Amino acid sequence: MRDIAERVAAGERVTEGDALAMLATPDINGLGAIADAVRARLHDRRAFYGCSVNLNYTNVCELRCPLCAFSCDEGDSGAYVLDMEEVARRVRHACDCGVDQVHIVGALNPALELDYYRQLVSTVKAVREDLYIVGFTATEYDYMSQISGASVDRLLTEFREAGVSALPGGGAEVFDAEVRQRIAPKKISGDQWLAVMRTAHRVGLRSNATLLYNHVETDAHVVDHLRRLRALQDETGGFQALVPLPYHGERTEVPARRRRPTGLDTVRLFATARIYLDNFPHIKALWMYLGWKTVQALMHFGVDDIGATYLNEKIVHAAGASTPDSGSEEALRGMIQQAGFTPVRTNAGYEKASE
Ligand code: SF4
Fold this sequence. Notes:
By secondary structure, the protein is α/β, with parallel strands linked by helices. The protein contains 14 helices and 10 strands.
């Protein structure tokens, strides 16, 4: 790691070979020191979180990806589509709980027309105009284009004008075609995902990018994924954060490589991403996916954002509810402080950041 450390300190960009070496290194402390120095150069002691509600508007999906435990078929018990009354009710409740960001992501439901997606955005905005909307993955924009005949470019422009401010990073999975064939064969290809993001950035939308790990991928696939993201970021500058997501294989058709990835694998992945993606401002570790203890450790290995409250009825602890308070803003701030950082509330665009 010493050679890589010297080159990073000199402002040099690391190579794919370096990334492979970092993903396999036994020198966790050496790797962590490099990642932490990169993080500190960008953010000092500041660590970010948000107050957000998730609107998963439907779980009926025509793709039924083998990796997915969320989707179902029309008519299955548990299949749902949120109507606008319910959307408004949830958003109003979220606002009462102090949320300022709405994260809209759902499945590809053939019963829904483009108008439904438009109504989702207008309903949220009608509740409160200044809500920051993180709306629809690249996969969903591609699907909307297919069902409506409108170009992705036009749709992204329309939704930006309607109030969507950023795109979540979902659907990226792992770009490699063979991996995708095994985990999500009907989903848009890695190239298509990147093309939607390129267009989104061009029309003025920011976005995140995810990386799903702990399934059938190898280190080489991870590095290829990071390489393609870094290249697009060089071109557009529109990505805000990389969000690596650990895959859990329960109730899916693809077994997880490990029931849980080992702590050191996770550390290597996040630290490598921080060092390799020198043009990404943020590396985000979602506490909901990884658990608080892991995320606190990762903050010393390159992570500067821990995700959001996600509401889920939990943020109401600020208002005195007695159910577990693991998702409250207070709990998130405490977690960051305990790890030795200064909590900064922000949104997916990292605007209006406040300590
Ligand atoms: S497209 Fe998304 S919601 Fe649909 S099956 Fe695949 S991962 Fe699940």
